[in-house]
Amino acid sequence: MRFAMILIGAALLASPAAAQTGGTAIPTTTISQTISLGTATPGGGFPLYGNAFAEAMNAADPQMSIVPRNTKGSNENIPLLEKGELDLALVAGEPAYEAFAGIGRAKVALRILTAIYSNPGMFVVRADSPYKTIRDLVGQPVAFGAKGSGLPILARYVLDGLGLKQDEDFKAVYLDRAGDGPAMVEDGRVAALWGAGIGWPGFAAVAASASGARFIAPSAEEIARIRARHGFLKPLTVPAGSYPKQTESIASLGSWSFVLTREDLPDDVAYRLAKTLHGVEATFCRKLAQACETTAENTVAAAPKVELIHPGVMKYLREIGVMK
């Protein structure tokens, strides 16, 4: 659903004069708007992030109302954005990469509002399980994430780099709700749960369970093999203490997730969103650990091409010196 705008003044948001003010406050007497934000299924990382994102942004700009909406995840969010049924949506790195590159589909004309956080992928198993490597999980039932989410796509690339097939070498399980995975690990219905990111709810739930958790990530040699085949995946680290009883950092690989916009989101709206988000970076970080990676600098660094960043966002990033 496209955002609803109610004009409460004669001036347009971010008129040329307002846009040149740089560090001045965002106008709050010109326009009131509701902006839809697609997340994913309940219990996953995207709804957690999306709700915190909306709270921080709405508190900073009372004339703006970002409304999170549960969806089936990245693979549904992309066509919803294309049809204009969402204004913004969270999309994992791999689906975004495929959509921008036109892999398996036509290229999208969607744009990046912000990079949100990195997604180092790994498996979690019960601490008392016998599984210690990815190869140990071959032939076992493994929950690869919610149907329609980006997690199974990341797993597919990682496993392909190791010469493994997700649906042939494992008894692959795809969830209706992301939040169902931890209980399936705990009661033995699956041997492992695949996930990604820092502060991911599924990992946190298994780590906090009575059985505890062991994380399984690619070894250094496996990371090199995966990157040789899929170079867009980047080495990433899960710092020690990211999950209960995780005493050592974990090296893995993955990509960055994004907030994408529909193609025709007006430049002045994207500018206003970028400016508001930059102003609440510290507040957002205090609210949610993984939001500490949501910065203007990371958006520029994580974008596959800078031209994929929304023009309204690029205008603001140039004003603050993050882009030339």
Residues in β-strands, percent: 15-25%
CATH homologous group name of the largest domain: Periplasmic binding protein-like II
Shape type: globular
Biggest pleated sheet: 11 strands, mixed
Number of strands: 11
Number of domains: 2
The span between the termini is 34 Å
* Helical percentage: 25-40%
Main CATH class of the largest domain: Alpha Beta
Short précis:
This protein is an alpha/beta fold and 324 residues long.
Give an overview of the whole structure.
The chain is of the alpha/beta class. The protein has 2 domains: 4-118 and 257-319, D-Maltodextrin-Binding Protein, domain 2 (3-Layer(aba) Sandwich); 119-255, Periplasmic binding protein-like II (D-Maltodextrin-Binding Protein, domain 2), CATH 3.40.190. 34% of the residues lie in helices and 23% in strands. The protein has helices at residues 16-19, 45-60, 74-82, 93-101, 151-161, 181-186, 201-208, 220-229, 267-279, 281-287, 296-302, 311-319; strands spanning 4-7, 31-38, 64-69, 88-91, 111-126, 141-146, 171-175, 192-196, 213-216, 234-238, 250-261. Strands 1, 2, 3, 4, 5, 6, 7, 8, 9, 10 and 11 form an 11-stranded mixed β-sheet that branches. Helix 5 links the parallel strand 6 (141-146) and strand 7. It starts with a strand and ends in a 5-residue tail after the last helix.
Topology diagram in text:
Elements (H helix, E strand, L loop, with lengths): L3 E4 L8 H4 L11 E8 L6 H16 L3 E6 L4 H9 L5 E4 L1 H9 L9 E16 L14 E6 L4 H11 L9 E5 L5 H6 L5 E5 L4 H8 L4 E4 L3 H10 L4 E5 L11 E12 L5 H13 L1 H7 L8 H7 L8 H9 L5
Parallel strand pairs: 2-3, 2-4, 6-7, 6-8
Antiparallel strand pairs: 1-2, 4-11, 5-8, 5-9, 5-11, 10-11
Helix pairs in contact: 5-8, 9-12
